[in-house]
């Protein structure tokens, strides 16, 4: 695929990942293995509250085709087929879930040096069409997306956004929820090696006059250990420590605290991922 402005879903993703990725209050254990035939297998067990769930996933890549299938403990089977370059500069993604036959979706992505387009059709009782477009360069991009319900004839969503990317910083503004909310975020690396970063995000919902301000940071302690933290204006604090205990085995410990009611709303979680 050629280098361009990226997909609309990439706008704001860097800040979102820094503030949410790997944070969890659940207990999770994952094991990754690879066979000689090129099949990647993932087994995951999660304990959330008093409930335990698990799934097994297989990923196989052949030339420009990627096949992914997942089976969980509730007998759900999810399959995703991704094919690149059926038409030059395109990616086609088809997904289907059993026994929920109405959860299928077909998506086509088109990449250009100065624009990207996506079209997705959801196969359910009320078929919905989702489209998005982004124009610009890898440095600055403008984008919009919309969802349309073919049964009711109404727009289910429309969103616009802009992002600016520099070598040491990234900023974005997204007007979403049909114009009812706005989110502005910024990520800045504090050193040339990008071992530390600071992030800030402001979210405002106009209908309720609600404002949420979140700040966070990441620090690479050494080549084995990463620490992250975040806090918002409501006093909710999150912290995370990820360490490679043995080669290719990651232990992630995270916690969420309500500083205004610490004794009532403290949640802790951890995850272990074994990767060959």
TrEMBL record:
Organism superkingdom: Eukaryota
InterPro entries found in the cross-reference section: Porin_dom_sf, Porin_Euk, Porin_Euk/Tom40
Family the entry assigns: Belongs to the eukaryotic mitochondrial porin (TC 1.B.8.1) family.
Protein name (record): Mitochondrial outer membrane protein porin 2-like
Xref: CDD domains: Porin3_VDAC
Pfam families: Porin_3
């Amino acid at each position: 695929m050629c280098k361009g402005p990226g997909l609309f879903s990439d706008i704001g993703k860097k800040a979102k990942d820094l503030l949410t990725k790997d944070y969890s209050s659940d207990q999770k254990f994952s094991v990754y293995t690879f066979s000689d035939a090129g099949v990647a297998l993932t087994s995951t067990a999660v304990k959330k509250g008093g409930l335990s769930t698990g799934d097994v996933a297989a990923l196989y890549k052949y030339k420009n085709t990627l096949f992914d299938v997942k089976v969980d403990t509730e007998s759900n089977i999810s399959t995703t087929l991704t094919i690149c370059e059926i038409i030059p500069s395109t990616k086609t993604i088809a997904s289907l879930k059993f026994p929920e036959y109405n959860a299928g979706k077909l998506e086509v992505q088109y990449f250009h040096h100065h624009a990207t387009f996506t079209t997705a059709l959801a196969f359910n009782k009320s078929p919905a069409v989702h489209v998005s477009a982004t124009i610009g360069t890898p440095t600055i991009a403008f984008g919009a997306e919309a969802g349309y319900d073919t049964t009711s004839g109404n727009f289910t969503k429309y969103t616009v956004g802009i992002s600016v990317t520099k070598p040491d910083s990234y900023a974005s503004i997204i007007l979403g929820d049909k114009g009812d909310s706005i989110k502005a975020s910024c990520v800045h690396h504090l050193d040339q090696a990008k071992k530390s970063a600071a992030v800030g995000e402001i979210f405002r919902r106009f209908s309720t006059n609600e404002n949420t301000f979140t700040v966070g940071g990441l620090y690479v302690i050494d080549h084995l250990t990463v620490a992250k933290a975040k806090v918002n204006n409501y006093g909710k604090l999150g912290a995370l420590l990820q360490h490679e205990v043995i080669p290719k085995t990651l232990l992630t410990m995270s916690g969420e605290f309500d500083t205004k009611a610490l004794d009532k709303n403290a949640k802790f979680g951890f995850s272990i991922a074994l990767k060959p």
